[in-house]
Write a structure and sequence with these properties.
The protein has about 160 residues and is α/β, with parallel strands linked by helices. The protein has a single domain, classed as Arc Repressor Mutant, subunit A, CATH 1.10.10. The protein is built from 6 helices and 6 strands, in the order βααααββββαβα. Pfam families: FUR (PF01475).
Amino acid sequence: MQILCKLYKIKDMEDGEVLRILEEKGLPVTRQRLAILKKILEMGCHFTARDLHIALDESAKAVDLATVYRTLKAFEEAGLVTCVAEMGNCRYYSGTHAGVIPHAHFCCKGCGRLFCLPPLEVTASREIRSLEKMGFEVHQLVVTIEGLCAQCRRREEGK
């Protein structure tokens, strides 16, 4: 899947800051976890485990793919990343760190591209407040709209 997102590259963090984040979440600190979290913060966009694995290889901080998958699972459980879309058996993640503005996504079922949409409107926070008043505990809001992008729609109409 190709992801089209101009949102939100985070400033480079020092190793000490990344270490502090892991410690605050109660995660054991390893060389691999430090490298993976630092890369997630640098990427600042949506990614798959494979995207992250390739980015780590390119930065000379090689971590095997199985470790990337296990670490993403631990990071998701700790609230450091969230799954923003799933296509088949592929999960797309985003960091939950400061600087990432909540936004919806459009997933094209024709070409598989994931488009970031503008930040969510006030109505979403109104709905969340309403749910909280009814006793619900909201952990996250993920909005993914599925359909055909303009290019795929034109292609379908031309058949």
